[in-house]
Design brief:
heterodimer, A: mainly alpha, Amino acid/polyamine transporter I, two-stranded antiparallel ribbon, 2 strands, B: 534 residues, alpha+beta, Immunoglobulin-like, Aminopeptidase, 17 strands, 17% strand
Chain lengths: 483, 534
C-alpha cells in the first residue's frame, strides 16, 4: 500500500515517539503481520472465495459475520483512504503549478483543506477512477501503468531518501526514528498505533490475502510471498519514515520546532508528510517536476490499494449473488458518501507561535477507530485457524509442497498464544487509555465499532444463506502442534 | 618540591567526615533550566501564589516564544502607586545560561520565604518586583538542542531559512537599544567585530533608514535627506524643535521592543514606576553601570558607584562604569538610564566562564541573590542612598548546607591560582565529584558540598599555584584516577555510535530481510520453472 507507507507510517511514527514506534512496529511485523498474512493466504487458497464465503465455509455458518466484518471494515477504511488519495491528486496539481513557491507548506495545506468542495472534488475523482477500473474490469491496464509507475516511485523514493538524509539537521530525524524512547513504550497508544500500522500497511486484516489467494495460479507459493509482501511493505514504510522525518527536522528552525510539529502542536499531525514533502521539493532544483512525478506515482500506488479494497467488497457482493456492476456502483456510492464527513470535518487549532492550522479531525478519529477494526479482523482470522485446528491448519495448509518457505513451529505458537494475548491486552489498554482521556472519544469509538459488529452479526444468517455451500471439511479433534 | 608545599597546603577547618543529614531544598538545583521547563513552572507559580504573583507575556521572540514577566508583590494584580517597581532581567545573550538561574532563584527565594523571613515579607509587601527570566529564549533553547553557544537572537538576517544557525543569524540584543546607537561609528572596539556587519557576534541590528517623523518629502529621490536625522540622545540634533524623533536604529527586535513596552507601559509613571533595573550577563565578576557609550560619567555616577559597590561586595565582584570595561553602543543600560532615567546595573556573573558546570549553579545563584535584593531594598529612593544609609538586607549565607567545607590556608591564598582549587568528594564507593572552590570575602577558599546520599564522605583537594605547580592534598596529584570533567554537554546529544548500531539493526532486519527473501523467491521460482511445476 503506497499511502500506508509514505503517509501513514511517518504520521504514526512522528506522533508516537519515533524509535519507540519503530521498535514495536518491527516486533508486531513478526508477531502479527507475517503470521496473519500466512494464515490469510493459506485460508484463501483453501476456500477460493470472498471473505464472507471463506469464513462461512471455513469456520461455520454461524461465523459468516466475521467475514462480513472484514468487508465492512475495509470498505470503511476506504472511506478515508479515498479522501487521502484525493489529497495526493491535489498535491500533484499543486506541484504542477509550481510547488511551494513563496508560501509555506502549511499555508498550502490550510488553503486546500479549508476549501471543503475542493477536498471533496478530488476525493470523488479518485473514487470514480477506481470504480471505473473495477467496473470495466480493466485492471490489467492499471497493472501495465503500474509497471512504469511503481519503479518510478521507488527510484524517486531512493533519491528523496538520499536528498533528505543529506540535508542539514537531518541527523536529528534519524535519531528520532531509530532511537527508542522509554516514555513512549509505556503508552498504550504507541502499541496500538504500531499494531494498527502493521495491520493497515501489510493489509493483514483487510482480507486481501484471503481474496487474492483465490487468484493465484496452482503451484504458486504463498508463505514466502507473505513474508516478502510484509517485509517489502516495511521496507517502503521505513523509507517513507526516514524521508519525511528527516525533512521535518531539516526544514524546522530547531529540533524543538520539529518536535512541536511532530506532536501536532504547530502543524496538523496527519498532514505533515504532505506539508514537509512539498517544502522538501522546494529545496530541490526543479523540485516542482520531481514533486509532480512523485505525487502522480503516489496516486497510482494509492489507486492500486483502492482498487483492491473495492475488489474485496465486490467479490463478497458477487458471492451473495449480486451482479458485479451493481456491486461496484453501490460500493462507489457508499465510499464517496462515507468519505465526505472525513473530508469536511476539520478543527482549527492554534500553534504555539499563534498561527492556525486545520486538522481533519474526523479523519484522524477514523484512523484510530478502524485500526482497531483491522486488528479485530486479524483476531478473527486467528480464530478461524483455531476453529479449523491450529495443528491441522499448520500441517495441511501452511506447509504445502507448493510453498518455497517452510514455516517453523513459531507459527502455531504465535497464533495460539500471542494473538489472543496481543489482541486482548491492546484492546483493553487502548480502551482504558481513551476512556481515561475522554469519555466522549471512547463513546464514539465504541459506537462505531459496535454498530458494525451488530450489523455484521444481524446479517449473519442472511449472508450465510446467500453464500451457502458445503463447509470445507468436517472439523477434526484439536491436536496441539506444540506438544 | 611537591612534598614541601603539601605540608603547607590548606587543611579543612571543619571536617565533615560524617555527614548525618542531607537536607535538600529545591533552591539548590544543579541542572540548567530549559525555557519550556521555566514556562511550566512559572504557570505553576502563577496558580500556586495567585495573590503574590502575576504572570504575563510581555511579547514574543522571533520564534514566537512568550517573553514572560512575573510580577511579585502583595496583591500582584494591582499596580500600587505607593510601591516602587523593580525590574530584574535575565540574560540578553543566549549562551549566558547562568543568568536565568540567578533570576530563577530570585523568584523562588522571594516566594518561598514570604511570611517566613520578615525581611522578604517586607520586600514583597512594599515593592513590585518584575522578573523577566528570558530575554532571548530562542537562542537559549537552540543552544541546548544543538550544543552550540549562540549569543545573538535568531533573526534570520539574510532570509535564507538555514536550519543551522551560523553567525549570519541574529542580532545582539544588548546592542539593539537606540540611545547613542551611533550608526556612523563602530563603537565596539573588540577586535574588528563591526556592530553593523550582520555576521558579527555583536551585530546591532538593521539600520532604521526610515523617515520616522515624515519630514522628508524627498525620500523617494534621496533617502539620505532628513532621514534618521534626529537620533536618540536627548538632543534636538536637526534643530527642528523636536527631540529624538527620527532614530537611526535600535528596537528592531521583538525582544527589545517588548522590554521597552513594559517599561513604558504606564507613560505617566503613576502606578508602574520603575526606579531600579538590573540584568544579568556572564562572565567577569563585575557590576556595571552607565554609560557604556562614553567615558564621561553620567549625572548619577556617584550614586550608581555607591550602590554598585555594595552590590559588588555582596558577590565579591567589582563595580565600575560600563565604558571602563569596553565601549558599547546600544546596550540596555544606556537607554534605560538615558531615556527612562532608571538607575540600572548589569551584573557579569562569575569569574571563570560563561557556563559554569551545573554543580556550581547553587554557588553562583546564591552568590548573586543578595545584590538584587539589596537593589530592591533601596528602590524607594535610590538617589537618596548615602554612605551612611542602613543596609539591612545584606545576604545571609544560606545555612542549610548539609556540609560546609571551609578550607583555611597556611599558604597565602594569593599564591594559588583562582579557579584551579577544587575539592573532590564522594559518599560511598562511587566516583568522586569535583567542585571548584572560590575565594570568599575573608580570602579563604571555600565551597559547599551537597552529597545526594547519607554516609561517610571522603574528600581531597587539588590546586595549582600561580607558578603552575599541581598540588593535591592529601596524596600526590598522580594518584587521582577519577577525573570529573566539568564541560557542559547537551543532554540531547546521542552518540553517533548508538545511532549507527540502531540503524544497522532495524535496516538490516527489514531491508536486509526483504532483499534476502526476494532473492530466495527468485531462486525458488527458477527451480519450479525448471521442474515444470508452474
Amino acid at each position: 500500500m503506497g499511502l500506508g507507507n509514505i503517509w501513514r507510517f511517518p504520521v504514526l511514527a512522528g506522533t508516537n515517539g519515533g524509535g519507540s514506534f519503530l521498535l514495536l512496529y518491527v516486533i508486531f511485523l513478526f508477531s502479527w503481520g507475517i503470521p496473519l498474512l500466512i494464515a490469510e493466504f493459506s485460508m484463501g487458497r483453501k476456500t477460493n472465495r470472498g471473505t464472507i464465503g471463506a469464513f462461512h465455509d471455513f469456520v461455520g455458518k454461524r461465523f459468516a459475520w466475521m467475514g462480513l466484518w472484514m468487508v465492512v471494515v475495509s470498505t470503511i477504511v476506504g472511506f478515508y483512504y479515498g479522501v487521502v488519495m484525493g489529497w495526493t491528486l491535489k498535491y500533484f496539481t499543486i506541484m504542477l503549478s509550481g510547488g511551494v513557491g513563496s508560501s509555506s507548506g502549511l499555508d498550502i495545506w490550510n488553503t486546500f483543506i479549508g476549501t471543503g468542495w475542493q477536498v471533496i472534488i478530488f476525493q470523488v475523482i479518485s473514487i470514480l477512477i477506481t470504480a471505473f477500473i473495477v467496473y470495466k474490469g480493466v485492471e490489467s491496464g492499471v497493472e501495465k501503468a503500474c509497471s512504469i509507475m511503481m519503479p518510478t516511485l521507488i527510484i524517486l523514493l531512493v533519491f528523496l531518501l538520499i536528498w533528505a538524509v543529506t540535508r542539514d539537521g537531518a541527523i536529528k530525524g534519524l535519531e528520532f526514528l531509530f532511537i527508542p524512547k522509554g516514555e513512549y513504550l509505556g503508552m498504550g497508544t504507541t502499541w496500538t498505533a504500531a499494531l494498527g500500522q502493521i495491520a493497515f500497511s501489510t493489509s493483514a486484516g483487510f482480507g486481501m490475502g484471503i481474496t487474492y489467494a483465490a487468484y493465484l495460479k496452482k503451484g504458486q507459493d504463498t508463505t514466502l510471498n507473505s513474508v516478502i509482501t510484509a517485509l517489502g511493505n516495511s521496507t517502503l514504510g521505513i523509507m517513507g519514515g526516514i524521508i519525511v522525518l528527516c525533512s521535518v527536522f531539516a526544514l524546522s528552525a530547531s529540533p524543538a520546532e520539529a518536535y512541536s510539529a511532530l506532536s501536532g502542536e504547530s502543524v496538523p499531525s496527519i498532514g505533515f508528510p504532505f506539508i514537509f514533502l512539498t517544502q522538501l521539493f522546494g529545496t530541490i532544483p526543479g523540485g516542482w517536476l520531481v514533486g509532480a512525478i512523485f505525487f502522480i506515482a503516489l496516486s497510482f500506488a494509492a489507486l492500486t490499494s483502492m482498487i483492491s479494497t473495492m475488489e474485496i467488497g465486490a467479490a463478497n457482493f458477487i458471492d451473495v449473488g449480486w451482479d458485479r456492476k451493481k456491486a461496484v456502483r453501490f460500493l462507489a456510492f457508499v465510499t464517496i458518501l462515507g468519505g465526505i464527513p472525513s473530508a469536511l470535518i476539520t478543527v482549527q487549532s492554534t500553534a504555539p507561535d499563534g498561527g492556525t492550522f486545520l486538522l481533519p479531525a474526523l479523519l484522524e478519529n477514523q484512523m484510530v477507530v478502524w485500526d482497531l477494526g483491522l486488528i479485530t479482523s486479524g483476531a478473527f482470522v486467528a480464530f478461524a485457524v483455531y476453529r479449523y485446528g491450529i495443528n491441522r491448519f499448520y500441517k495441511e495448509l501452511v506447509n504445502t509442497p507448493d510453498n518455497d518457505l517452510v514455516i517453523g513451529r513459531w507459527w502455531p505458537f504465535t497464533i495460539k498464544y500471542l494473538f489472543p494475548l496481543q489482541f486482548t491486552l491492546l484492546l483493553a489498554w487502548t480502551f482504558y487509555e481513551v476512556l481515561h482521556e475522554s469519555v466522549l472519544t471512547f463513546a464514539t469509538m465504541l459506537v462505531q465499532l459496535m454498530a458494525v459488529l451488530m450489523i455484521a452479526v444481524w446479517l449473519n444468517s442472511w449472508v450465510g444463506k446467500k453464500v451457502e455451500r458445503a463447509p470445507v471439511e468436517p472439523l477434526q479433534s484439536e491436536e496441539d502442534p506444540l506438544n | 618540591m611537591g612534598l614541601m608545599i603539601l605540608g603547607a597546603f590548606p587543611v579543612p577547618a571543619v571536617a565533615p567526615s560524617m555527614v548525618e543529614e542531607v537536607p535538600r531544598t529545591d533552591l539548590h538545583w544543579t541542572q540548567y533550566h530549559r525555557y519550556d521547563n521555566i514556562t511550566q513552572q512559572l504557570r505553576d507559580l502563577d496558580s500556586r501564589y495567585p495573590d503574590l504573583v502575576k504572570l504575563e507575556s510581555m511579547g514574543k521572540s522571533w520564534h514566537q516564544r512568550d517573553l514572560w514577566v512575573l510580577k511579585i508583590s502583595d496583591m500582584a494584580d494591582m499596580d500600587d502607586p505607593e510601591e516602587p517597581d523593580v525590574l530584574v532581567v535575565g540574560p540578553h545573550h543566549g549562551n549566558e545560561y547562568i543568568g536565568v538561574e540567578v533570576v530563577w532563584l530570585v523568584i523562588n527565594y522571594l516566594l518561598e520565604n514570604y511570611q517566613v523571613d520578615p525581611r522578604v515579607t517586607w520586600l514583597v509587601d512594599n515593592r513590585e518586583i518584575w522578573v523577566v527570566p528570558f530575554m532571548n529564549p530562542d537562542a537559549h533553547d537552540y543552544n541546548f538542542e544543538s550544543g552550540q553557544s549562540f549569543r545573538k537572537n535568531l533573526r534570520d538576517n539574510d532570509g535564507d531559512m538555514a536550519t543551522v544557525r551560523d553567525n549570519s543569524f541574529g542580532v545582539d540584543l544588548n546592542r539593539n537599544y537606540p540611545f547613542h546607537w551611533d550608526s556612523l561609528h563602530d563603537g565596539d572596539i573588540t577586535g574588528g567585530n563591526s556592530r553593523f556587519s550582520r555576521r558579527s557576534s555583536m551585530y546591532a541590528g538593521p539600520k532604521d533608514n526610515y523617515d520616522d517623523d515624515g519630514d522628508s518629502i524627498l525620500t523617494f529621490i534621496n533617502r539620505g535627506l532628513r532621514v534618521d536625522e534626529d537620533w536618540v540622545d536627548n538632543l534636538d540634533n536637526d534643530g527642528d524643535g523636536l527631540v529624538d524623533e527620527d532614530p537611526d536604529g535600535g528596537f528592531s527586535e521583538p525582544e527589545t521592543r517588548a522590554l521597552r513596552d513594559l517599561i513604558q507601559r504606564d507613560p505617566y509613571r503613576n502606578n508602574i514606576n520603575f526606579t531600579v533595573y538590573v540584568d544579568f550577563h556572564s562572565y567577569s565578576g563585575l557590576v556595571l553601570y552607565p554609560w557604556g557609550y562614553t567615558s564621561q560619567p553620567c549625572a548619577d555616577a556617584e550614586t550608581l558607584q555607591l550602590i554598585g559597590e555594595r552590590m559588588a561586595e555582596l558577590s565579591n565582584y567589582t563595580a565600575m562604569q560600563g565604558y571602563d570595561l569596553y565601549q558599547t553602543n546600544g546596550d540596555s543600560l544606556d537607554w534605560i538610564y538615558g531615556k527612562e532615567g532608571i538607575l540600572c546595573y548589569t551584573v557579569e556573573i562569575g569569574k571563570e566562564q560563561h557556563v559554569p558546570p551545573p554543580e556550581e549553579i547553587p554557588y553562583h545563584t546564591w552568590n548573586n541573590l543578595g545584590s538584587t535584593l539589596y537593589l530592591a531594598e533601596v528602590a524607594k529612593d535610590p538617589r537618596g542612598v548615602t554612605e551612611a544609609s542602613q543596609q539591612w538586607l545584606a545576604p545571609e549565607p544560606y545555612d542549610g548546607w548539609n556540609a560546609q567545607v571551609r578550607v583555611s590556608t597556611m599558604v597565602p591564598p594569593e599564591q594559588l591560582k583562582e579557579g584551579a582549587v577544587s575539592v573532590h568528594y564522594r559518599v560511598g564507593d562511587g566516583p568522586y565529584s569535583t567542585i571548584k572552590m572560590y575565594r570568599g570575602p575573608d580570602g579563604y577558599y571555600s565551597t559547599s558540598i551537597y552529597p545526594d546520599q547519607k554516609g561517610t564522605m571522603e574528600y581531597f583537594f587539588t590546586a595549582e599555584t600561580l607558578s603552575g605547580n599541581q598540588l593535591s592534598y592529601p596524596g600526590p596529584v598522580e594518584t587521582i584516577d577519577v577525573e570529573v570533567t566539568s564541560e557542559f554537554v547537551s543532554s540531547q546529544g546521542i552518540s553517533m555510535g548508538l545511532l549507527a548500531l540502531s540503524m544497522l539493526f532495524f535496516l538490516g532486519l527489514i531491508w536486509g530481510g526483504f532483499a534476502f527473501t526476494v532473492q530466495m523467491a527468485i531462486r525458488a521460482d527458477r527451480k519450479k520453472k525448471a521442474a515444470g511445476v508452474i
